[in-house]
Structure formats: structure tokens, C-alpha cells
Amino acid sequence: MNYENIEILFAEDSKDDALLTIRALNKSGFSNKLHHVIDGAEALDFIYCRGKYAGRNPKEFPKLILLDVKMPKVSGIEVLEKIKSDPLIRSVPVVMLTSSNEGPDIERCFALGANSYIVKPVDSDNFFKAVKEIGVYWMILSQPSN
Amino acid sequence: MPDPTLTFKNGEKEKRAAELIIANKEMAFQNEEKEKRAAELIVANKELAFQNEEKEKRAQELAIANKELAFQNKEKEKRAQELIAANNELKKAQDDIRKLNDELEQKVIDRTAQLESVNKDLESFSYSVSHDLRAPIRAINGYTSILKEDYEGILDEAGIDVLQAIIDNSRKMGNLIDDLLAFSKLGRKQVTVSEIDMNDLVQSVIEELPKDASDCVPVFSIAPLIPASGDRSLIKQVWINLMSNAIKYSRYKKEIIVEIGAFTKDQFVVYYVKDYGAGFDMQYYDKLFGVFQRLHSQEEFEGTGIGLAIVQKVVHRHQGMVWAESELEEGTTFYFSLPQQNNT
Fold first, then answer.
1. pTM of the prediction?
2. Which among A114, B83, B183, B253 has the fewest CB atoms less than 10 Å away?
């Protein structure tokens, strides 16, 4: 598979949430350069070109990383921590996705350097709006800086 | 011729007689003296007898007094022993109290630890409820929306209606979960008390209230509000819930008027929010502040039945009270009281 020009790395273990998020991004026209991984371990493999991503160009980083907070093996928070403590990739914006605004996650994510935090709404209309915001965020990022 | 010897003897006898007379006189005198002395002795004797009697009397009195003293002494010893016993008892009681105090302190520490652990359990429970219950509902809502969007042409109107019902219900379930979690969070949230400028707070609530699409704009009539002490964010939630209720239940009236004011009562400031909306039947008043209790149908006025339960919980956590007066179709007034701010 060709992993070149991947602009959004999207880590989400829930098949349903992944489908709905990708569909919403699709509808906004942003998902053609998106790559979906199913847990934090795979996200780190992608970033560091390990395992099945061994052939990927390590100099190419995604422009935006979407991480679900709660994932098996390696959680979104652990991936966030790794990214933000690595000078090479630290500057890539990370948006955290979560099912709940409960618990200590929000503060922890911001303390670790997350750029944004989205509580996935139950309602699909609102979900679509939230994902669209990610799209807008990404669009601003991908504009060439002067 | 007188015998000289006889003469001498006569002379002697005369001398002797004279001497005897003298001696006799002397004796008579001595006798007199002795009699006088005897009389004196009798008097002295009488005196002595009297004195003796007195002394005996006194001795008897002393004996009685002595006995009394001995008795008193015994009493005092008894009392002293009693005092020692009482003292010992007091000491024991003090020790007991100290021991009980220590035990109590330990119990408080134990209970606090237990409560903290229950609180932690509750927190992780809410966390997993909000995570794990919301996810499948989100999926139901999302997939139904996909069905509705992508297969609209295949389904007839009744089919679309069913899909819309699923979407609406799952949305409602999501709201219920969120509200219930918000409510359970309230009990655990630390109350941070500070002085609240209520005029300022109510104004910010009005600005933040969601603007209804309908053309009926609520008219607020706000009297100057007395400041009170409380947790600003929690009290803000009270105003939001009461004011949005006032607007919601005035929806079918020609105009929406909401009156807000305050007065002091004892050590409390009482605030009120008055509307001229649908009102409720006071016979169901007991249900008004219950969790998930509603006095109107979902079709008439939507809601999860958690708003007033939150209001009550917040006000109670501030040691205040909340109550209401209402008349069907005339309107409702909600009151809540907060401790007056200290003038220190």
C-alpha cells in the first residue's frame, strides 16, 4: 500500500465511530488523504515507520493527527505523550476525540500538549459539525504558510 | 518558919499557875483562832466542792465535745475517702473519654477513607457509563442517519418517519445520560464560595441563553439583585435552569415575560424567577424537584426532568432553600435562598 502524502492520521478502535467520522470527513471533502489505524500501537508504528509501515518514508509526517482517547494496547493519551515529547514530530497538531467529557482526560490531554479536544456527540448532526470543525482546522493547517 | 523549900515550892506553883493561866489564855486564844480557821476552812471547803462540781461538769462537757469531734473526724475521713474514690472515677472517665476520642478520630479517618473510595468508584462508574453507554447510542443515531440520507428514495414516508423516531429517541437517550451524569457530578463537586454579583451573573446568563428560532423574544424585567455568597458556576447553573424553564413554559403565550428580583429574609437572600406561562397543578408539587419527574408531556414541553433536581441539589449544597408557587395557565414563581454575604 502507498502511504505517501498521508495528511491525516486517524486512530480509532471503534469500527462504528471510525465509519461515522470518515463519512463525515468525506462529506466535507477532507478524507481522501486520511489513513485509519485501529489502535495506539499501530499509530506509533505508522509514525515511526515500524512493522507493516517499515517501508514508509520517515521524513513524511502527517499534517494532522486524530487520536481517540480510549483505545486498547496503547491509548490515545500515551500516543499523545510520545508525540509531544519527540522534537521531530512535536509540532504536528493533535486533536483528541473522546466519548465523554467525564473524568480527568481533558485536563491531562491539554497538559500533555493536545491542540484540541472533541467530545463525540451522540447526535449525528452534531457529530458531523464537530468533524467538519476538524476539517476546517486541517484546511487552515494545510495552507502554505507565507 | 516557913519552910523555904515550901516557900519556894509555893512560889513555883504560883509561877506555874500564872504560867498555866497564860497558857490557858493562849490556848483559849488558839482555840478561837482554830475555830475561826475551821470556819474559814468550811467556807473554803464549800468553795472547793463547788469548784469541783464545776470542773466535773466541764469535764463532762469536754467528754461530749470530744465524742462529737471524734465523730466529725470519722465523717471527714469517710468524706475524704469518698472524694478520693470520686477523683479516681473522674480520672477513669477522663481516660475513657480520651480513649473514645481516639477511637472516634480513627473512625472518622476510616469513614473518610471509605467515602473517598466510594467517591472514586462512583467517578469511575460515571466515567465508564458516559463512555460506554454513549458509544452504542452514537452508533445507533449515526447509522440511522446514514440510512435516512442514503436510502431516502427506497423508503416511503412511513419508513422515513420510523428512522426519524429512532434518531430522535437516541438523541434523547444521549441527553438523558449527559444530564444524569451532570447531576451525579454535582454531589461530588467541591463548592467554592465567594461573593457573587447577581446582577452581573444574571446578565451573563441572559446573553448566553440559546436564542429560540421562534419570533417570540422573551422580555426580562429585572429588579436590582442583592449579592450573596456561593459557588459562581453552580449558582449560574441554577439561574440558567430557572430562566430557561420560565421561557420554555411560556412558549404558548402571546408574549414571554420573565420577572427576576430579590429580597432579604432572616440571614438569607431570596431570589425569584416569575413567569406567566403554563404553570402547574400545585397538587403535584411534591414531584416538582424529583429526578426525572415531569409535570408536562414530552409533546407539550420537551425535557429530561433533571433541571429542577439540579437546582434543588445546588441550593441545598449552599444551605439554602428552593420552593415554588404556581397556578395553571397563570404562571409560576420559583424562589431560592442563599446565605447573605458576610459584611466583614
1. 0.60
2. B83
